[in-house]
Design a protein that fits this description.
Number of domains: 2
Radius of gyration: 19 Å
Length: 89
């Protein structure tokens, strides 16, 4: 993900086509095929479908983490653990 972020920042920093092509060529020769495929997907403007709606996430956090017993800290911890298991992070 860091490599893609650097790619995006370099593309955004230049307005010259030749510079952008050089950055893209370097990225696609160095990046693993899986990362390159995701880069093409996102550079085309595609987006991932929202997995959880915000309203459902709040409801889940309140129910799962015990709303009456200081639910914010456990909700953040549980969410952080869940995000570490998420395959796209």
């Amino acid at each position: 993900m860091k490599r893609f972020t650097e790619l995006y920042m370099e593309l955004d920093a230049s307005n010259r086509t030749t510079a952008k092509l050089a950055v893209l060529k370097r990225y696609f020769t160095e990046a693993p095929p899986e990362d390159a495929a995701w880069a093409v997907y996102f550079l085309k403007g595609q987006r991932l479908k929202r997995v959880v709606k915000t309203a459902n996430l709040r409801e889940w956090a309140a129910e799962d983490c015990g709303f009456h017993f200081g639910w914010l800290r456990p909700a953040i911890i549980t969410l952080a653990i869940w995000l570490k298991r998420w395959p796209y992070s």
